[in-house]
Amino acid sequence: MSARILHIASNTFREAVRDRVLYNLIAFAVLMSGAAILVGQISINIERLVVINLGLTAISLFGIVIAIFIGIGLVSKEIDKRTLYTVLSRPVRRWEFIAGKFCGLGGTLVVNTICMAVGIFAALLYIWPHHLQASDTSILVALYFIILQFLIITALALLFSSFSSPLLSAIFAFALFVIGTFSEDLRGFAQMTHGAERWLATAAAYMVPNISALNVIAQVAHEQQIPGQLIVLNTAYALVYSFMALLGAVLIFERRNLK
Amino acid sequence: MPAIEIEKLEKNYSVGFLRKTLKRALHPLSLVVEQGEIFGFLGPNGAGKTTTLKMLMGLVFPTSGTARILGKSIDDAGVKAQIGFLPEQPYFYDYLTARELLNYYGQLSGVPGKERPQKIAAMLDRVGLRDAANMQLRKFSKGMLQRVGIAQAILHDPKVVFLDEPMSGLDPMGRREVRDVMEELKRAGKTVFFSTHILSDAEALCDRVAILHLGELRGVGAVADLTSSVRGNVEIVWKGTTVFPVMKALNATCYATGDTVRAVLPETNQDAAIDAIRRERARLVSVTPVRASLEDYFVEKVKKIEAGMGAKA
Question: Does A22 touch chain B (CB under 8 A)?
């Protein structure tokens, strides 16, 4: 990775920290503390399930909101405020700028997720002291898949941000996330249709990000094992999808006049 | 090798809902700037100065034409290590301190990590921001931001420096400091290419200037050469009479204070005016040529263009 990408990524991370993006950790800490205390009082033997479900879902939602709302401004804000002028007038290539921004926001989301993961394990230890079990390692797999979701959504937000207004970019990215969570249903629907409709539905099903395949929260909460093959396939899928979205962003941004 | 070579650089924008209407921002522009020059790029707002600078910086793509900086195409990212750029009304990452911002730009420009802290400290000193080095830019005044802007443009010791309206919004002291920095750069053998619509700044600083109006180049040359083409005036002061009628016939503009009269008139009428003063038995105090300013040259050019456009219409 070029040093310039690292510098841009580190500046993007610093911007997120100074703009108090990580303050969402406070809200998450309050949520997990409340859940750990309340669940112990109102539920019998399902505390673990509730804490894992609630914790992982909260991590996913907080992260997606950050990925979309920061991601859509990564390029457009720099153009609007003209901060990009003094960056691109240096020996920085446009693709390096996009890659740096992606890595910076990706890094922010990874740090955010790690902090929240600590919160989940702390809550589990609180409700069930000294009883972390081997199956709890699958929580790490679920967290890894959530991070893969963030990478895809960040890449999409960057893609939209490279040619569209922040509002439209947010709508597009959020819509794709929502459709992506139902992508299995979309594929099922495609198989039920015929002719041109089938082609269209299949194309649409493969265009939207397959977020549902990256959501294993329910399985993990019910202590089901996640197959190694799924980890490999999901990793490859997320990397290829993110790369394609970033490539689109770069191709558009390379041709853009910065008025 | 010239510092900057611009060859038929042209920019058209598509405008309108269907983007079918073409708006010409810059007519084909050809220009050569030699190394070590302070070159002024002059013109009123909307003349095409910023568009030209953005094309040279690779921020906007030309419709046609080419440009080279230090012999290399502007598409070559490597040449950018040799140039510095201050945009018009610059805005920087306001969550950073001045020191952090310069460090970031130093990293992007490839300034080695070992040299960076010393260079940054020296640069902050040079632009008078040593005491504000650790203050976030969101607390900076406009003048302070302009100083940071100059610092980031020259931190990496570039050979060619592009400044877009560097004096805009500065108080007289700030303008003086920017002028001093530009003169220092020239003494260090750097090339400075700066755009401005403040003609007095250009007149005081530039070896050569180019004048742009409505996206078209209207003149290039040394300030003295350009202004010598403007019809000269002469100022005559005398005592002892009031303004007499023959002066009006000689196209003189007269200002009387007590029994002293100051008249400004075309130098072609100078002898006739002095003869008239002698005939009136007034006491001649002084005869001073009034040097045409860049502003006079500029106004005359613009008037000619507008008259030409009016005649065509």
Answer: no
Domain ranges, ordered by start, for chain A:
3-254
The minimum CA-CA distance between B250 and chain A, rounded to whole Å, is 51
pLDDT tens track for A162-191 = 888 889 999 999 999 999 999 888 888 888
DSSP codes, chain A: --HHHHHHHHHHHHHHHHTTGGGHHHHHHHHHHHHHHHHHHH-SS-HHHHHHHHHHHHHHHHHHHHHHHHHTHHHHHHHHTTHHHHHHTSS--HHHHHHHHHHHHHHHHHHHHHHHHHHHHHHHHHHSTT---GGGHHHHHHHHHHHHHHHHHHHHHHHHHTTS-HHHHHHHHHHHHHHHHTHHHHHHHHHH--HHHHHHHHHHHHHS--TGGG--HHHHHTTPPPPHHHHHHHHHHHHHHHHHHHHHHHHHHHT----
Mind telling me how many Å the CA of B52 is from chain A's nearest CA?
12
pLDDT digits (tens, 9 = 90+) for A211-241: 999 999 999 888 888 899 999 999 999 999 9
Structure tokens given for A240? 């290829």
B-chain residue closest to A13, CA distance: B95
Q: Which residues in chain B touch residue A16, judged by CB atoms under 8 angstroms apart?
A: none
Compute the nearest-CA separation of B58 from chain A (Å): 7
Q: Does residue B219 or residue A135 have the better pLDDT?
A: B219
* SS3 per residue for chain B: CCCEEEEEEEEEEEECCCCCEEEEEEEEEEEEECCCCEEEEECCCCCCHHHHHHHHCCCCCCCEEEEEECCEECCCHHHHHHEEEECCCCCCCCCCEHHHHHHHHHHHHCCCCCCHHHHHHHHHHHCCCHHHCCCEHHHCCHHHHHHHHHHHHHCCCCCEEEEECCCCCCCHHHHHHHHHHHHHHHHCCCEEEEEECCHHHHHHHCCEEEEEECCEEEEEEEHHHHHHCCCCEEEEEEECCCCCHHHHHCCCEEEEECCEEEEEEEHHHHHHHHHHHHHCCCEEEEEEEECCCHHHHHHHHHHHHHHHHHHHC
- Using a CB-CB distance cutoff of 8 angstroms, which residues of chain A are in contact with residue B90? 82, 85-86
Q: How far is A92 from chain B (nearest CA, A)?
A: 7
A33 interfaces chain B, CB cutoff of 8 Å: no
Say what the pTM is.
Answer: 0.85
Nearest by CB to B54, from A81, A93, A258: name it: A258
